[in-house]
């Protein structure tokens, strides 16, 4: 019954997403000719993505942004930095019928926040190091994190997966109001407020564990 309910809600959200794009003024389809475009951007330490992008992040000394997509779609992929956060989105009032790929390659010396609002996929390509990392998922994609963090804060309101088993974190705080799956690796303290229908799993043995489970999901060691 739970699985049926979860699948039904998922389909409702997908149909709503499709319905909203149907009101767009212009419909575009990828040409099939994928090219790469390097864009100049200012420094950033956070990412906020909405749309259907696949984002690959590398932490190093360079600040860079490369977009790979159909040549006729690049003009509709908007990227800008506001208050230290890189905003990635598809142009408003444009409905995307089909694309070959919409890949975003980014790098920066620091990464402190990741926010996902679409059907995006965010992947760390090397070990990320952060004093505090905040992850907000309001979409249906996937976030995969590797590296080390002193503090990991997760706010999940979506249906996607947050895979952070390879991100060794001293203290982890999770607020789950969504339906996805969260996997973390907390070494010292784990605090979970679960009000959703998803799963929260931890792979380590934190010295302190606090769980408030008021939802239909589950919290347990993997």
Automatic annotation (TrEMBL):
Tree of life domain: Bacteria
InterPro entries the UniProt entry points to: DUF2807 (IPR021255)
One Pfam family matching this protein: DUF2807
Putative auto-transporter adhesin head GIN domain: residues covered: 44-206
Name this polypeptide is given: Putative auto-transporter adhesin head GIN domain-containing protein
């Amino acid at each position: 019954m739970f699985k049926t309910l979860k699948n039904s809600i998922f389909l409702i959200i997908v149909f709503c997403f499709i319905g909203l794009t149907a009101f767009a003024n212009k419909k575009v389809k990828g040409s099939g000719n994928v090219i790469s475009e390097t864009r100049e951007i200012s420094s950033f330490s956070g990412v906020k993505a909405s749309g259907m992008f696949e984002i690959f992040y590398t932490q190093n000394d360079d600040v860079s942004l490369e977009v790979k997509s159909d040549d006729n779609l690049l003009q509709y992929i908007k990227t800008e930095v506001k208050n230290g956060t890189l905003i990635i989105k598809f142009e408003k009032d444009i409905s995307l019928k089909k694309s070959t790929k919409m890949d975003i390659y980014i790098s920066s010396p620091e990464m402190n926040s990741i926010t996902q609002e679409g059907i995006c996929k965010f992947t760390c390509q090397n070990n990320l190091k952060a004093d505090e990392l905040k992850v907000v998922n309001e979409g249906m994609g996937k976030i995969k994190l590797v590296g080390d963090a002193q503090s990991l804060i997760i706010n999940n309101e979506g249906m996607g997966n947050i895979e952070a088993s390879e991100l060794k974190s001293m203290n982890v705080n999770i607020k789950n109001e969504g339906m996805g799956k969260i996997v973390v690796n907390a070494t010292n303290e784990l605090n979970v407020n679960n009000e959703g229908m998803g799963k929260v799993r931890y792979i380590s043995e934190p010295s302190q564990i606090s769980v408030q489970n008021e939802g239909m999901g589950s919290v347990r060691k993997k």
